[in-house]
Each structure stands twice: as C-alpha cells, then as structure tokens.
Amino acid sequence: QVSDVHSLYYEVYGNPKGAPAIVVHGGPGAGCFQRHSQFFDPEHYRIILVDQRGCGSSTPLGCLEDNTTQALVSDMEALRIHLGVDRWLLFGGSWGVALSLAYAQAHPSKVAAIVL
Fold it and tell me: Cα separation of 68 and 92, whole Å?
C-alpha cells in the first residue's frame, strides 16, 4: 500500500543474493510481464518487476488519482527500502526511461547503473 488509494503489485525472480535490478515498464498504463525478467541472467541478478500505480496488477487499475511522476518515484524508493535493497540497476523502456531518469535524479546514491 503506497497511498490511501494505491497498492502496488510486484514480483521478484532470480538469485535472492544477486545484483538487484528493477524493470521500469513503459506506458504509462502498461505493466510488467514475466518475460521482462528474461533480459537478465537469473543466476546473477535479483530481478524485480513492479506494476506502477494504476497499471497491470496494481490496484485500482487505471486510476489517475494521486498518480504523478513524483508519486511513482516515491513508490520506487519505498519498494527499494521494503525489499532491503541498498542500490539497484534501473532497466527502463519507453515511459520507463523517463521514470528511471526521474528516480536517478531524486536518488542518485541508490542507483548502481541505468540501462535505457
């Protein structure tokens, strides 16, 4: 639960002790799919797939209330803390590129690498 309105859905694949990598999906409005984890070697990475506010399996689907870029950046940071990740690789495509860059500007010390 990231707000009074929104709850995020996420999945984690790969090596629990591997280098953490978050997939920042496109859209807005899209979501992550298990196939997105195939960009990473599961032996070496802890792969985190998260559906942004209003997207995919996050609820409520399609909700734009309290759904801003800054809120999405805050959600990513809250998930990083929740998962106990020190620094992670950001892997973004389409809208995920802009969101990854916004996150990196807000939290540069928490970014190990960026793949856009």
Answer: 17
- 4: buried, middle or exposed (CB in 10 Å: 19+, 13-18, 0-12)? exposed
Query: pLDDT-derived band of residue 69, with 50, 70 and 90 as boundaries?
Result: very high
Are 60 and 85 spatial neighbours (Cβ–Cβ below 8 Å)? no
Question: How far lies 53's CA from each of 30, 87, 102, 108, in Å?
Answer: 10, 22, 16, 22
pTM of the model: 0.95
Please name the amino acid found at residue 79: L
| Distance, CA of 34 to CA of 50 (rounded, Å) | 10
**Residue type at position 68:** T
Angle at which helices 69-82 and 95-106 cross, to 10°:
70
